[in-house]
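Q: I have 442 residues here and want to know how they pack in 3D. Can you give me a structure?
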Amino acid sequence: MNEIRHNLDLARALTDAEERYSRQHPLSLAYMERASQFMPGGNTRSVLFFKPFPFVVKTSSGCRVQDLDGNDYVDFLCEYSAGLFGHSEPTIKAAIQHAIETGWVHGGHIENEARLAASLCSRFPSVERIRFTNSGTEANLMALVTARAFTKRSRIMAFRGGYHGGVLHYKSGDSAQNAPFPLVLCTYNDIEQTVAAIDREARDLAAVIVEPLQGSAGCIPASREFLSAIRRVCERHGIILIFDEVMCSRLAPSGLQGVLGITPDLTTLGKYLGGGASFGAFGGREDIMALYDPNRPDALAHAGTFNNNAISMAAAVAAATVLTSDRLVQLNAMGDALRAKLNGIAQARALPIQFTGSGSMMNIHFREGDVRTIADTETEDPNAKPFFHLEMLERGQYLTRKGMLNLSLPMLACELEGVASAFEDFLELNGRLIAASCSPLT
């Protein structure tokens, strides 16, 4: 791209980018206007909306999508990490087709349930028994109510920046939309504050729920020391430690719990593990999960019409055969190399830009200094990430509005070179503007 621009600030640059985007997507605009007659803002999934309006996907294949207006993109949004296998992976597609051909509303047990359960129990160190849900949100809700039932305590602890589903999000605190659990909220990666709060609240604290890497907050990893400290204090007080690995279990064959060597009491899973179908799961210690054994006279109920639906079970079993340990390790090594390359491009220009994350998940931040909590990201110019998002779309790179990139298995070196070249071009054209608007910390 060689267009000459004369924006004085990021706010004006963002307005210009929105105007260009609108001109390039007339059919998507027309669709959104029609859809808005029946859905609020034409939307049924908030995270997919962005201004001036989102494009509408027409087709997808491999690691690419095309919109209604014929614009092609390399898909680094990757269904917010759930699209690990790309679009229409052949083995998973065949499994879904077979499930449809043999019926898919059975109303009974099916063999793929036990196949999938065995696969996941063997993969994740903490998971001795497991149950399925329809989403990561459901999995986290079930894990929390399970901890409350097991401990006979009521309060839960979460962390600012944590996202555990549509009714369990803690960007800057609790939310009116959240499930009304009595809540203790702490600062991610703050060992002293967290341990003190657990000690103080232990008598009525049922569970601590934490992401080993906060995805929605901007791909912020937890330190091993932080998670180890939580593990120790939870053991001391009989508190259930829940690792939300709905996103980050894609970062290693045994999840981040395996990499870190820290075993929680319960683990929640979802997203990519369903092979693109609706999926969630919660599992952990046998004595905790035994609460749901229907042979017990005091068994807890766990309802869900589609918990074991044939399509999700078939897709997930097939996905497990596709995702070998070697392929996952290779993909995450590619992600580490890409993140290092992108950071090197920014550093070569002495710009206050960095990509945080691990393996195949990463997020851009327009600031210098460590990013250890969501509060560290709140000093950024609020126009920077939306501007970057539209500029990268213009270069054929589809990523999230907040600057998150995820890799998928169909990606090759050419896709990674392409996004690095697009980033370099973005900085070539806008580096001075970024430097002026996103001044380094002093």
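Q: Anything worth noting?
A: The CA atoms of residues 160 and 172 lie 5 Å apart. The two ends are 33 Å apart (CA to CA).
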